[in-house]
Structure formats: C-alpha cells, structure tokens
Write a structure and sequence with these properties.
The structure holds 2 protein chains of 2 kinds. Chain A is mainly α. Chain A has one domain: MetI-like (MetI-like fold, Orthogonal Bundle). Chain A contains 13 helices and no strands. The longest helix of chain A is centred in the N-terminal third of the chain and has 41 residues. Chain A starts with a helix and ends in a 14-residue tail after the last helix. By secondary structure, chain B is of the alpha+beta class. Chain B folds into 2 domains: 226 residues, P-loop containing nucleotide triphosphate hydrolases (Rossmann fold, 3-Layer(aba) Sandwich), CATH 3.40.50; 109 residues, OB fold (Dihydrolipoamide Acetyltransferase, E2P) (Beta Barrel). Chain B contains 8 helices and 20 strands. Chain B has a 6-stranded mixed β-sheet with strand order 6-7-8-3-9-10, sandwiched between helices. In chain B, strands 13-12-11-14-20 form a 5-stranded antiparallel β-sheet. The longest helix of chain B is centred in the middle third of the chain and has 18 residues. Classes of the chains: A mainly alpha, B alpha+beta. Chains A and B meet through α8 and α9 of A and β6, α2 and α4 of B.
Chain lengths: 285, 356
C-alpha cells in the first residue's frame, strides 16, 4: 500500500517534471523564433527573403552587413546608443538605488506618497511627455545632444530602479543595518559597507534591465535628437519606414541583429554575478 | 563602567503608548532579564537602550552618561539579535572583526581579540566559513563572538535562543551563563521564556502591557509573586488558581458551593479572593481537598497529574511515580506558606496554556 502510493507519487512528479520541460520549450520557441527569423533573414539575399513557402536553406550572404557597417551613420548611432544607454542606466542606478533604500528603510512622513507619485509618473504615456520635453530642450538649446537623452531616459529609469531596489531592500532583514550601526557605522556606512555588497545580484539584474530599456528606446530619441545624438532604434525605424523604397527587410534585420548583439554580450558577461541567494545565511534558516 | 539606569522611560508610536514610564537600575556586572508576553514592550525597551528606537520620554543612562541622543555606535554596547544578523558576505573572522575595524583598532590586536573570542566559543575551525555554511547553533555562537570581541560596557540580547531547537537552547543557555560568569559584563537579556529568565538572570524584570509588574531575584518572584500576572507567568507548569469567597475565616467557598479548608487565612482579610497554589506544592494525602484524577503524565523524575476539583482542572506535580489511574479519587494537601492570595480577578490568559 505504502510502496504503491509512493510509486504513484513518484510517477506523478516525473510527469510534472516533463510537463514543465515541455512548457519551457514551447515558451522558448514563442520568444526565440522571431529573433531566429530576424537573424536568418539578415543573411539572406534579397530574392530569398520573400519566397513562399519561406526558405530555411539558402546561400548565406553578409553583403547587407558589409554595406550597412560601412555607413558612417550606423556606426555613429551605435556609439551614441552605447553612450546614452550606459550613462542613463548608471546615473539612474545611483539615484534610484539610494532613493529606493530611503523609501524602504527611513521612516519619513509622506515617504509612501512620494514613492507612489514617482511610480505614477510612469503611468503617463511617453508621447504626452515627448513634446513638452522637446520644447524645453529647444528653449535650452539642448536638442540633439547626448545629455538631453540621458536626462530624458532617467525620467523613466529612476522610478523603475527605485521600485525594484526598494523591494529588494525590503527583503533584507533590517537587523543587518542595525547590527552594523551598533558595530560602529553610520546609516551611510551601513548602507555602503553592508547593504550594497549584499545587494549585488539585485543591483546587476536591475542594471541589465535598465540598460535594455534605454537601449531600445525609440520615442524620445526620435523626438529629441536629429542627427548628432540619434540612436540605433531611430535608424531602424528609418529603414522600416522608408516611404520612397519601401521597407528594406534585409537591412532592417541586419541592423536589428547588430543592435541585439551588444545587449546579449553584456547580459552574458554579468550573468555569473547574478547568483541568487548571496544574502543566505544572514539570519536563521 | 557598565551601569545602566532607565528612568521613567516612555515610548509611543503616534497616539499609541507602548511603554508607560519604566524605571530599572542595573548595577555593573549584573545579568538582568526582561521577560513578558509578546507585545509587553520588552524588546522595544532593549532597542531603546541600544539606540535603535527614539525615546519618547525619560532618560537612559549608560555608564553615568545620558545617552538619549547618542548614536548606537557611540554607546559602547554590543547586541545579539534574535535572527543573528550576521553579515552574509563576510566570513566568520570578518564578521567578528568588523566592529573593531570600524573603531580603527590596530590589525594585530584585532587578530588577537578575534582568536581569543573564537577560542572561548569553540569557533576556531569555522573562522573561514561564510554564515550560510553554518548551522543555527554555530551562527548563534558567531553572533555572540561578534559581541564579545568588542569588550563593550553592556551586552544586549534580544531573544537570542528563540530560533534554536529545544536541546540546543538548553546547551546554549548554560554556555551563556558560563560566559557571563567568566566575563562579568553587564547584560540585559530579553526573552519571553520565563525558564530562560529564571535560570540565567541575577534579577528578573517581569513586564506586562508596557509597565513593570515586578522585579527581583528569580526565586523571590517564584516565592512571592506580587500580582496574579506574575504568579501566572513565573513557574512551569503554571500555578493553579481557584476563585471564591472566604467564609468562616479560612474556608474557601467556590462558585458551585464546594468548601475547601485553607491551611491559613488571607493576611489581607479580603472576602473574595483568588487563591493560587503551584502544582509542585500539592501533596497527596488521606484527607484534604477531594479531587478526581483525569490525566497522568509520567516523565520519570516526576509525574504530572491533571485532576478535577469541583469541576475545575488543576495540575499536580509529584516527585517520582504514582500508582493513581484516571478516575481515582485523591486528596490534596498544601502547606500554609505555599498558598498565595490575590484580589479576585480574571486569571490572565497565559496561565491557561503552558508557557514553555
């Protein structure tokens, strides 16, 4: 009796395991197929792109890559995107992390309200902000400058970082800081010497997501920049919306692939730091 | 000097007052336990001594200096938290060194002091481990080691043994007591476990609802509880209570009319009283209060009998073994000095369930 119920339990868990793996595969296909298709198309010749049924086997070419990488504006836009995305992400990390900590730990009157208001600001459609931002930037003579985009991106990245880090800090026992403060730290000392090192996994995943958000941003870049500070999503949009020649799918997918590569490389680089449970062992357990 | 004076200390959160003017005078080297049910304000008081909570009123004096507005780091105290709060990214040695590094103690001295504390606590083989690689008891010991290396004026313990299993708790309790005898550092120890408080402390402060119910040496609290609350709180298994009317000088008439002859009269000569008798102070005799055995629980050294007396369940603890079976009729006797009289009042809830 016991052995039988044990066996059926085991069978059930094996089945559950298989279902989970299958579900994982299905979800992965749904998410990865468009990327796969983009990369595939980017290596096709113009004639192969529109064949029906679609062709999976063809003579690959890197002609589109060669053509577009030679164009100075694409390279410059990649550099612009790197500058703007990393600066705005880092700046937002510094401000957002400290704000998130304050919201999580420091008892201040109205702190909750302030936090909510900052979060609500994300509820405003970006298009509603883009035009006023453009007008302000023009008045200040700041259009088409890196700093303008960095500040614009920070307006949505800081609330994002703040709320993510706030919940991360809330998950840490407050006795850690209290212990540090009794051990001889000020509130700032406890934050920098104890809390930040423990928060490394949270900080890095937040950083990755912030980078990606800034990297792919189109609307503000479209409105606030023109030539000098323009980013790669603007270039892609330009290729897609070419009203004279129609969309150049080869170019679109090639530039798209080039855009994705740095993000993937960056994510792989920091991935090993994302080990979960760095905070294990602080308390009972 | 490790003296601590708590003078009329108050604490309120908005309109809610949780400490209503508490005063305790702690001598250098004394081990004082603050004990009480959850929500009585004992942890809040400890955190105020540590400087982790603001003081709404009164003064806290450590070593002759009013510390109301002194930062925790400048109070020369060390604290052990219930959840240990070890720094997870530092190994045991660095956890113990941290406070000394913050105080810019020279490196060789830090090494000596950490090694010394590690030897006292048996932590030497664990110095290179991270907290997550330690068992609960080992983490507990590291938390104590972190406090010891500081050589502070005052140790503060906030329920340090609550997260350990029963066996380990008893072992750590003895180690704590030995440690205090060895170091002689003033210690304030918060616990909800009256056994811990009784066994460890030189003086026990029983708190309830933000006030001190009674303070004194452990056995004084056991022998002469000043209130029904203390009587119910101190002692395990808890004291039995019988409510009734005093008739004919020394006879207790219960609600159902049962008359029990008391071995002595109420010194305050109240007409309605609550009479308390500890389970271990009953003895079984030929004559006395009649009761019927309902449960017998032998533990070897002693036997706990739950009996029904005039419809009410009471506990009786007798040494050794007994031959009584459920349903047997027994008679209970109590010595004159072992009867406690209190104002007639509802018995605090906690007496109904075993605090341990």
């Amino acid at each position: 009796m016991n052995a039988r119920s044990g066996l059926s339990y085991k069978n059930k868990s094996v089945l559950g395991h298989r279902v989970r793996i299958l579900a994982g595969i299905v979800v992965s296909i749904v998410f990865l197929f468009p990327i796969y298709w983009m990369v595939l198309t980017s290596f096709k010749q113009q004639v192969d792109i529109f064949t029906n049924p679609p062709r999976f086997l063809f003579t690959p070419t890197i002609a589109t890559y060669v053509e577009y990488m030679k164009r100075a504006d694409i390279l410059a836009r990649i550099v612009n995107t790197i500058i703007v995305a990393s600066s705005s992400a880092l700046f937002s990390m510094v401000v957002g992390t400290m704000a998130g900590y304050a919201l999580a730990r420091i008892r201040l009157k109205g702190a909750q309200t302030v936090g909510l208001l900052i979060l609500l600001s994300r509820g405003v459609p970006p298009i509603a902000l883009a035009v006023p931002m453009f007008l302000v930037a023009r008045k200040l003579g700041l259009t088409d400058k890196h700093i303008t985009l960095i500040l614009a991106y920070s307006t949505f990245l800081i609330p994002y970082v703040m709320w993510l880090m706030r919940s991360f800090f809330l998950s840490l026992p407050k006795e850690l800081e209290e212990s540090a403060m009794i051990d001889g730290c000020s509130r700032y000392g406890a934050f920098f010497k104890i809390i930040l090192p423990i928060s490394l996994p949270g900080l890095l995943s937040t950083l990755i997501f912030s980078m990606i958000l800034a990297w792919e941003e189109l609307l503000f870049a479209l409105v606030l920049t023109n030539r000098h500070a323009s980013t790669i999503p603007v270039a892609i949009a330009g290729i897609a919306g070419d009203s004279v020649n129609g969309a150049n799918w080869g170019a679109l997918t090639a530039v798209g692939t080039i855009t994705v590569v740095p993000v993937v490389v960056f994510a792989l680089l920091v991935q090993k730091w994302l080990i979960k449970g760095l905070a294990d062992g602080a308390t009972k357990g | 000097m490790g003296t601590v004076q708590i003078r009329e200390v108050r604490k309120s959160y908005g309109a809610v007052q949780v400490l209503h003017g508490v005063s305790i005078d702690i001598k250098d080297g004394e081990f004082v336990a603050l004990v009480g049910p959850s929500g009585c304000g004992k942890s809040t008081l400890l955190r105020m001594i540590a400087g982790l909570e603001d003081i709404s009123g009164g003064d806290i004096v450590i070593g002759g200096r009013v510390v109301n507005d002194v930062a925790p780091k400048d109070r020369d105290i060390a604290m052990v938290f219930q959840n240990y709060a070890l720094y997870p990214h530092k190994n045991v040695r660095d956890n113990m060194s941290f406070a000394l590094q913050q105080r810019r103690v020279p490196k060789p001295e830090i090494v000596t002091r950490v090694d010394n504390a590690a030897r006292i606590l048996g932590l030497e083989p664990l110095l290179d481990r991270k907290p997550r690689q330690l068992s609960g008891g080992q983490r507990q010991r590291v938390a104590m080691g972190r406090a010891i290396v500081r050589d502070p004026d005052v140790f503060l313990f906030d329920e340090p043994l609550s997260n350990l299993d029963a066996k380990l708790r008893v072992q750590m309790r003895s180690e704590l007591k030995e440690l205090h005898q060895r170091l002689g550092t003033t210690t304030i120890y918060v616990t909800h476990d009256q056994i811990e408080a009784m066994t460890l402390a030189d003086r026990v402060v029983v708190m309830n609802g933000g006030v001190i119910e009674q303070e004194g040496p452990p056995l004084e609290l056991y022998d002469k509880p000043a209130s029904l609350f203390v009587a119910a709180f101190i002692g395990s298994p808890p004291m039995n209570f019988l409510q009734g009317e005093i008739v004919d000088g020394n006879c207790l008439m219960l609600a159902d009319g049962t008359r029990l002859l008391l071995p002595c009269a109420d010194p305050k000569e109240r007409s309605r009283v609550t009479v308390g008798v500890r389970p271990e102070h009953f003895s079984i005799a030929e004559t006395g209060w009649p009761a019927t055995v309902s449960i017998v629980e032998p533990t070897g050294l002693e036997t706990q009998i739950t009996a029904r007396l005039a419809g009410q369940l009471i506990r009786v603890l007798v040494r050794g073994r007994t031959a009584f079976a459920p349903g047997a009729s027994i008679h209970l006797v109590v010595a004159p000095g072992d009867v406690h009289f209190f104002d007639a009042a509802p018995v605090p809830e906690l007496a109904l369930n075993d605090p341990s």
